[in-house]
Amino acid sequence: MGRKTKPRDMDALLEALAGRSIVLVGLMGAGKTSIGRRLAERLGLPFVDADHEIEIAAGMTIPEIFAEHGEPYFRDGERRVIARLLQSGPQVLATGGGAFMDPATRGSIAKGGLSLWLRGDLTLLMKRVRRRSNRPLLRTADPEATLKALMDQRYPVYGLADVVVDSKDVPHAQMVNAVIAALLDHFGLDAEGATTGRKESCDAG
To answer: Residue 187: what pLDDT?
Structure first.
């Protein structure tokens, strides 16, 4: 979906959000940070990466947190950091892959934000995560099987998100346009910012 949106679309979208944040959820490699940063720029909102904020709060990297304290300790800190961030005003917030799995975090997101799942298939995600070595959950003998298991476990829960957009191997600008189109459609807004009457969630690619 490559249509261009006009500035008044952004105004209409911000008005519909009514001060809530856009919270990006999905597995590692889905593009939450890269797409989220560009989406925030288009909307004139701050971009915040929850994992980065967790590292600042902990004074160590996420791989170090996993290695020294384990995943439950990390998840507890993640829950508290995301709840705090959602109280700091409208933003585009990229969350870690496991964040939306926590019921308390989903509750915080539902209260202060609009959840948007960037859904990627296994081939695309593996292509992207192979480029980086800082994925604690993939430090296994068979990373692809591990990622597939995470997809099987997490995708039904990600499906609870308000909006779903398929992550594709296309230019970032095209993906941002797809996300904006999906958000407009969710609120029943057309490309001119006028109400169409539709408020259901949608898939867009």
So the answer is: 95
